[in-house]
C-alpha cells in the first residue's frame, strides 16, 4: 500500500464533538454491547482516516508518518507523544528522537496482535494522557503504525476511564473524527473494561 506524506488537508483541526452521555432509558446500548454489536458500530458511518486527527479536545490519534514529522508536531504544538508501537523492531523513536522538541515521550511496546494483552496499559496510559491534557498548553499525540488499532484502543480506554464514557459512546465519539478499527482481541479487552467500569460507582473517572 502506498502512503502519502502528511499534507495540510490531513491536519485540519475539526470541530470536536462528542456523543451525548448515556442516560437511563436512552436508546444507546443497554449495558455492555456484544462483540458483534461493537463490530457493527465500528463498520458503520466510516470516517476518512488521515495521518492525524483530533478526536477529543487537544487529543490526537495518528500514524507513524506524523509521529516522525518533527516540524509538523512543532506546528501542531504537540507537548506529549504516546507511541503505542514502541520498540526496536517497530516504531523506534523515543526521547532521544524528540530531544530537540519540548515533547514528553511515553512508549508502549505493543503488538497489533489479538493475543497481545494491551489492557495492562489502559490505566497507566489513561493517567498519563489526563495529566498531559491538564498541563499548560498540553496537546497529546497517541500513535501507532497506522493509527487505527493500538493507538485507537488506548484512546478509547482513556475516554472510558477518565471521561466516564461507556465503550459504545467512546467509539462513536472517536469515529466522528477518525476511522478506527481495533483488532478483535483489543475490542474484547475494551469490552471487559466496560464491564468492570459498569459495576463501579461513577465508572472510572476517579482513577484519573
SS strand fraction: 5-15%
**What is the count of structural domains?**
1
Helix/strand/pairing category:
alpha/beta
Rg calculated over all Cα atoms: 16 Å
Number of β-strand runs: 5
CATH topology: Protein-Tyrosine Phosphatase, Chain A
Count every helix, treating DSSP H or I runs of 4 or more residues as helices. 7
Write down the overall geometry. globular
Query: What integer is the average pLDDT?
Result: 83
Please give the CATH class: Alpha Beta
CATH architecture descriptor text: Alpha-Beta Complex
Keywords:
Protein-Tyrosine Phosphatase, Chain A; 5-stranded mixed sheet
Describe the structure.
There is one protein chain. By secondary structure, the protein is an alpha/beta fold. The chain has a single domain (46-200), classed as Protein-Tyrosine Phosphatase, Chain A, CATH 3.90.190. The chain has 7 helices and 5 strands. Strands 1-2-5-3-4 form a 5-stranded mixed sheet. Helix 5 (150-162) packs across helix 6 and helix 5 (150-162) runs parallel beside helix 7 (184-198). The longest helix is centred in the last third of the chain and has 15 residues, at 184-198. It is globular, with a radius of gyration of 16 Å.
